[in-house]
Amino acid sequence: MPKSVMGIGLTGLGFAGAFALHVVAGALDWAWLFGVAVALIYFFAAGFPAIALWLGGMRYRESREARLTYTVGTVIGMGLTLGALWAANGRSFGTWTFVLTPVLVSVVSALLLTLRAWQEGEFRRARA
């Protein structure tokens, strides 16, 4: 299975799991779990491109497949983020939902990519 399909598929499953958790928590009227589920929904939606790369075992811009995964992940992430913002806005679109969507996806994905690079030691200085 190609890395891109695996990364996008696993990230989609993570989002679907968070969405299912939010439905169950809402049905049970467990506000704390509902809040956790909503946070996970936004995390998976806004971080979709970076999470898809990570779960696919790829690095940002390492290959054509990684660039394709990031691009497709960005489109999916923007759609999911826009949907989440639409739901939070009482099932209606506002100008702010269209402005905030690319901002959230860009910032969250960049932060996740930066954290991963830092964790993997890409920012260490060469010893003299």
- What is the residue-mean pLDDT, rounded to a whole number? 92
Helices and strands, in order, run as: HHHHH
- Uncertain segments: none
The shape, in one word, is globular
Query: What is the percentage of strand-forming residues?
Result: under 5%
Largest sheet: none
How would you sum up this structure, described in words?
By secondary structure, this protein is mainly α. 78% of the residues lie in helices and 0% in strands. It is built from five helices and no strands. Helix 1 packs across helix 3 and helix 4 crosses helix 5. The longest helix is centred in the first third of the chain and has 26 residues, at 3-28. The termini are far apart. The mean pLDDT is 92.
Short description:
With 128 residues, the protein is mainly α. Helices cover 78% and strands 0% of the residues.
List keywords for this structure.
mainly alpha, 128 residues, globular
